[in-house]
TrEMBL record:
Domain MYND-type: 241-277
SUPFAM superfamilies documented for this protein: HIT/MYND zinc finger-like (SSF144232)
Entry annotated with the keyword ATP-binding: no
Highest taxon listed in the record's lineage: Eukaryota
Organism in which the protein naturally occurs: Hebeloma cylindrosporum
InterPro entries membership: Znf_MYND
Keyword NAD: no
Protein name: MYND-type domain-containing protein
GO molecular function (one): zinc ion binding
Length: 410
C-alpha cells in the first residue's frame, strides 16, 4: 500500500477535525470522499476566494514586501483570532496528539512556515518522532496575493531513513544556515503530502526550479484557516444514496426525507425506511411566521449565514433579502437549539438546516404553546432534529411531533 494512502476511516476523522462531519457509516464511495477531502483543504486555504484559477503562476504576484508574515497569516484567520483556540504558536504537540486534533496540528505546521520566513529560516523538516521519515521543505519565495495574504512557494521532497543513510545524513545533503524541525503524526504527514501534491499540480507545467535540491517538487501553500459555515455546509451536503452512496436523483415521494440513486436502491431500503416514512406521514404541521424586514411584529427573524472568514467576523447578513430556499419547498431536517444564555435573545430557539443556508431565531412569544411543546420534547438535551418545510420567504411549517429515525451527526 502506498505510503500516501489515507484510509476511509482516517479521511472521516480528519474531515471531522475540520468540522466536516459525515456519518461514520457513510456509503459514499472512496473517490467522492477523496474529492471532499481535497475540497476541504481548498476551503481551508480559501483557495476559491483568493486564487480560484486552475493554474496558479506565483510570479504574477508581487513579492512579499518583507516582515510580519506571521501576523498577516493570522489576519487571514479572523475566526481564530477571535476565539483564541487556534494555531497561535509554532510549538506543536506533534505525533502524540490524538487523530481528532489533526486539523489543528496541520494549521500549526503551515503557520510554522510563516514563522520561519519571519526568522529567515528557509528549510523545514516535517518529521516523525523517531526520525524515520520526513518531508523536507525549502521555502523559495513569498508572494503577496489578494487581501494581503502570503503565498509560499517552496520545493518539497520525501525522505525515508534507512540503515545505510540515517535521517541526519540525508539532511546534511541539503546544506542550510538554519533549519526547523516540526514533529508531525503519520496522518498529518499524509495530509500534508496530499495538500502539497494538490497545489503542485496547479503550478504551470513549465515550473521547475533548479536550486540544488534534486528530485524535489515545486509547490505552494496558503495559510490555513477554519472552514466557514457555508463551506462546511457544502462539504457535508449530498452524502449520497441512502443505500449505495451514489449520486442521488430520487426522493421518497411519501415523506421526502430520504434520497436514493434510483428505484432499485429505494426498493431495497424500503424495509428499513418504512417505519420512518409512515411515522412522518401523520405528523402535525404548524406554520410559523418570520419577521420580514422593517416589520415590528412579535415574530421571529431570519438571517442568511455568511462565512465567518468574510464579512469581518460577522457570520450573518441581514440586507433585507430573504435567504434562498435551497430545499425548493421540500421537507428537510433542521436542528433546533434552545438558548439559555441570558444575554442572548430571551426565550428563543435557533433553527438551522444542515447547510446552514439560513439561521432562524424562533421567539417563544410568537407561539408560546408550540414553543413550550418543543421545549418539553427536547427534555434536558436542549436540542433536537425535526422536519421543516419552507412555505414562503418568511414562512415555515414545522413538524415537532415526528422525530427522525436516527439523529444526524451535524
Ligand atoms: Zn443507491
Ligand atoms: Zn419515505
Amino acid at each position: 500500500m502506498s505510503s500516501k494512502y489515507i484510509s476511509k476511516e482516517d479521511i472521516l476523522i480528519f474531515l471531522a477535525s475540520m468540522g466536516v462531519e459525515l456519518s461514520k457509516n457513510t456509503k459514499m464511495p472512496m473517490e467522492d470522499l477523496t474529492k471532499r477531502l481535497g475540497n476541504a483543504l481548498d476551503a481551508s486555504q480559501q483557495f476559491d476566494q483568493l486564487l480560484g484559477t486552475k493554474t496558479v503562476d506565483p510570479a504574477e504576484f508581487p513579492k512579499w514586501p518583507g516582515g510580519d508574515i506571521l501576523k498577516a497569516s493570522h489576519r487571514n484567520n479572523i475566526q481564530e483570532s477571535f476565539t483564541g483556540t487556534g494555531a497561535t504558536s509554532q510549538r506543536k504537540k506533534g505525533p502524540l496528539s490524538a487523530k481528532e486534533d489533526t486539523f489543528r496540528e496541520l494549521r500549526q505546521s503551515i503557520l510554522a512556515i510563516s514563522h520561519c520566513c519571519d526568522e529567515g529560516t528557509k528549510d523545514i523538516y516535517y518529521m516523525d518522532g523517531d526520525e524515520k521519515w520526513a518531508i523536507f521543505v525549502r521555502i523559495l519565495r513569498v508572494y503577496k496575493i489578494k487581501n494581503d495574504v502570503p503565498l509560499f512557494l517552496f520545493v518539497y521532497r520525501q525522505l525515508v531513513a534507512n540503515p545505510s543513510s540515517p535521517m541526519e545524513t540525508q539532511m546534511q545533503s541539503f546544506p542550510a544556515e538554519s533549519r526547523a524541525t516540526i514533529k508531525v503524526s503519520e496522518l498529518e504527514r499524509r495530509i500534508l503530502l496530499r495538500l502539497f501534491e494538490k497545489n503542485a499540480k496547479r503550478l504551470p507545467p513549465t515550473y521547475s526550479i533548479a536550486d540544488g535540491t534534486d528530485g524535489a517538487i515545486a509547490s505552494f501553500v496558503l495559510p490555513l484557516c477554519p472552514i466557514g459555515m457555508l463551506g462546511l455546509g457544502k462539504l457535508t451536503a449530498n452524502p449520497g444514496c441512502e443505500v449505495c452512496g451514489k449520486k442521488t436523483t430520487s426522493r421518497c415521494m411519501q415523506c421526502l426525507s430520504v434520497v436514493y440513486c434510483g428505484k432499485e436502491c429505494q426498493t431495497a431500503d424500503w424495509k428499513t425506511h418504512k417505519s420512518t416514512c409512515r411515522s412522518l406521514k401523520g405528523g402535525s404541521w404548524h406554520k410559523i411566521k418570520v419577521n420580514s424586514p422593517g416589520a415590528q411584529l412579535p415574530y421571529s427573524f431570519i438571517l442568511s449565514r455568511l462565512d465567518p472568514t468574510q464579512g469581518g467576523g460577522k457570520d450573518t447578513v441581514s440586507d433585507g433579502t430573504p435567504p434562498p430556499d435551497i430545499h425548493e419547498g421540500k421537507v428537510f431536517l433542521a436542528k433546533f437549539q434552545l438558548s439559555l444564555s441570558s444575554n442572548a435573545i430571551p426565550g428563543h430557539m435557533l433553527i438551522y438546516d444542515r447547510t446552514r443556508s439560513f439561521q432562524l431565531f424562533w421567539l417563544r412569544k410568537s407561539d408560546p404553546d408550540l414553543f413550550d411543546e418543543g421545549v418539553y420534547m427536547m427534555r434536558d438535551k436542549l436540542k433536537f432534529y425535526r422536519w421543516v418545510r419552507r412555505t414562503g420567504d418568511y414562512e415555515f411549517d414545522l413538524c415537532l411531533d415526528r422525530a427522525p429515525a436516527a439523529d444526524p451527526v451535524w
